[in-house]
């Protein structure tokens, strides 16, 4: 499939090419633009700047896991640093969970706000569990709300590990947290309805 931008560029560079086009006839593929290669090169440079080793397994995995243009990746990286984390810590986080850079800057900011404002946790908790940023906003809101309710009921410890609250599988979360209170399952259902309709 051919992108509109690429087609426009090709027509501007080769205006007489259109004379050859006939409805229903097979077209020759356009010559490669080199954009994919440039993008890959810029991503590689970005990852090298973060401390990845060129041509390593770690680099290959990160290149597969990370989506988006290099400048967007830098913007997302800077957003995490500006939230109050040390640059070196953010580099380590990306080495562990490169996919955290796959979200828009606004989504990263929202998730950090839910961590700090919603849970009352310091932003430094991301260093020990960077995968938090890869989970969906709905899951984070729902589990955060449930955890806060359970905490208010005095049935769970404050400052429980993020991995337990957000990262545990649904079945485990239900058994270890929601079912700790007799009203927990009903509160969970109510929160699901409320949060899903926001």
Topology (elements, then pairings):
Layout: H1 4-13, H2 35-49, H3 57-65, H4 70-82, H5 87-96, H6 105-118, H7 125-128, H8 137-152, H9 162-167, H10 170-176, H11 184-196
Keywords: Membrane, Transcription, Transcription regulation, Transcription termination, Transit peptide, Transmembrane, Transmembrane helix
GO molecular function, one term: nucleic acid binding
Pfam families: mTERF (PF02536)
Descriptive notes:
Keywords: Membrane, Transcription, Transcription regulation, Transcription termination, Transit peptide, Transmembrane, Transmembrane helix. The chain crosses the membrane at residues 119-138. Belongs to the mTERF family. One of its GO terms (biological process) is DNA-templated transcription termination. One of its GO terms (molecular function) is nucleic acid binding. The chain has 198 residues and is mostly helical. It folds into two domains: 33-134, Transcription termination factor 3, mitochondrial; 135-198. 59% of the residues lie in helices and 0% in strands. The chain contains eleven helices and no strands. Helix 4 packs parallel to helix 6. The longest helix has 16 residues, at 137-152. It is elongated. 20% of the residues are buried. The model has no long low-confidence stretch (mean pLDDT 88).
